Amino acid sequence: MTRAGKVIAAVAVVAVVSGAAWYAVQTGLGPLPGPDSCTATVDGHTVGMTTEQAENASIVAAVAERRGLPARAISIAMATAYQESKLVNLDGGDRDSLGLFQQRPSQGWGDRDEIIDPYYATNAFYDALVKIDDYQDMEITEAAQEVQRSAFPDAYADHEQDGRTIASAMSGYSDAVFSCTTDSADLGAEELEANGLTSRANAVRNDVTRSFGDLPVGGFEPGGATSGHIEGSAHYDGRAVDVFFRPVSSQNTRRGWVLAHYLVANADRLHIEHVIFDDRVWTAGSASDEGWRDFDPAGVDGDTSAETRVVLEHRDHVHVDVA
After folding, report:
1. Side-chain-side CA neighbours of residue 282 (13 Å)
2. Continuous segment of H or E residues that includes residue 320
3. From edge to edge, which strands make up the β-sheet containing 37-42?
């Protein structure tokens, strides 16, 4: 082989190797960590999302939960947002369309700053949806069209199954079926604030309140928690919050999974390390590739009382801790 041929061959090999490495990183193949991404899997159907899409989907579900709306409302909203924006909070669109649902200021949906806020946009969508008689009995595409008045009404049908899958996961009717692959945040330690939480833990608490309203919380106290948790718990560092759903019931378990899935969807943004609920745990970093795993709490044995097992297995509260 000539010198020129050898050079060309070497370049080709480098290109192939580089291309393979890029593909591995992008797809999560092999030993390399998977890309930041999320999935919801229900009844054998899987929907893949970027973390941005997952965060927006979690807001759509959280607003519905706070308003007490049924899963059907979430399905309609998800299918609509998929069609209109691919669940991305767009800064523009056709004519003056904006945001997740491509709502138009000129059509009375609100001003630009309002519509670009996913919480406002989602509430505006639901405000219009609940005014439709029997929307729960309509086909998803029909209900979406009643709200949106789209020039392409049949297009919503393309996203019905994806919408139902995400809705079933995010509304808590399917548990431990939504997960994200994220990196573990490499951040320095923080001082405790007045309430005994770090600033990152307080950011999670404030975010949950914004999305779900006032929920009963605990696991922290001024000056820092000193007892009541297992050895080595993040509670003692002020990095953990417990959100309670009591008493244990099917409805409260469903509500807990709404929050648990929401926290995983926003784990990258909020620097969340662990979410534990209903004897399952999700962990950031390399373990996030495994999704939800069985939780093996210390101190649970055959002699442990039922009441203690409920607490140790996190049956009545969602635990979240941060870096």
Report:
1. 34
2. strand 317-322
3. 45-49, 37-42, 178-181
- Each residue's pLDDT expressed in tens, for the chain with a length of 323 residues: 554 454 444 434 333 333 433 333 333 333 333 457 999 999 999 999 999 999 999 999 999 999 999 999 999 999 999 889 999 999 988 889 999 999 999 999 999 999 999 999 999 999 999 999 999 999 998 999 999 887 666 777 777 889 889 999 999 999 999 999 998 878 999 999 999 999 999 999 999 999 999 999 999 999 999 998 988 999 999 999 999 999 999 999 999 999 999 999 999 999 999 999 999 999 999 999 999 999 987 766 666 788 888 888 999 999 999 99
- Long-range contacts of residues 109-116, Cβ cutoff 8 Å, at least 24 apart: 116/89, 116/91
| Cα–Cα dist 244/214, whole Å | 11
Closest-CA residue to 248 (of 240, 260, 258, 256): 256
Residue 294 tokens read as 């069985």
Q: 217-218 and 240-244 as β-strands: parallel, antiparallel, unpaired?
A: antiparallel
Closest CA to 240 of 219, 270, 209: 219
| Predicted model pTM | 0.86
138: its two tokens: 């309509």
State how far the alpha carbon of 76 is from the alpha carbons of 58, 107, 145, 160, in Å.
14, 21, 10, 8
In angstroms, rounded to a whole number, what is the distance separating the alpha carbons of residues 142 and 147? 9
Q: How far is residue 83's CA from residue 105's CA, in Å, rounded to a whole number?
A: 19
For residues 125 and 123, what is the distance between their CA atoms, to the nearest angstrom? Answer: 5
The helix (H) or strand (E) run that includes residue 280 is strand 280-283
Cα–Cα distance list, 315 to 211, 239, 296 (Å): 22, 20, 13
